[in-house]
Write a structure and sequence with these properties.
Blueprint lengths: L32 H8 L6 H18 L5 H18 L8
Helix pairs in contact: 2-3
Bound molecules: zinc ion (ZN).
The site of zinc ion has 8 residues, from helix 1.
């Protein structure tokens, strides 16, 4: 089943990493923007749980993409969580 619907209007699609650890739905490097928004938004999980989940995904990513630097993968999975927390409350979110 292949869908070519608008990536940004597709709440029903699953933004999960594919075998190259790109998003299977929007083809961004995973976790993609949609995934980050879903995990950190009002309907998402608490930051500690997000970080715990991302550390698990990071382990999988290190196995899936041994060609990528571990530091880059770690920053991709964990860096945005800190960014999200520091941005919350003080600075309004700008797209
Ligand atoms: Zn995605």
């Amino acid at each position: 089943m292949t869908e070519t619907a608008d990536v940004w209007g597709d709440a029903g699609r699953f933004h999960l990493p594919d075998e190259r650890w790109d998003c299977a739905a929007c083809e961004m490097a995973w976790p993609c923007r949609t995934t980050r928004d879903e995990l950190s938004g009002d309907t998402g999980m608490r930051r500690a749980l997000v970080e715990q989940a991302m550390r698990g995904y990071l382990q999988d990513a290190l196995v899936a993409r041994p060609d990528l630097p571990a530091r880059e993968l770690a920053d991709r999975h964990l860096g945005w969580i800190a960014d999200h927390e520091s941005a919350a409350g003080s600075t309004p979110h700008t797209p």
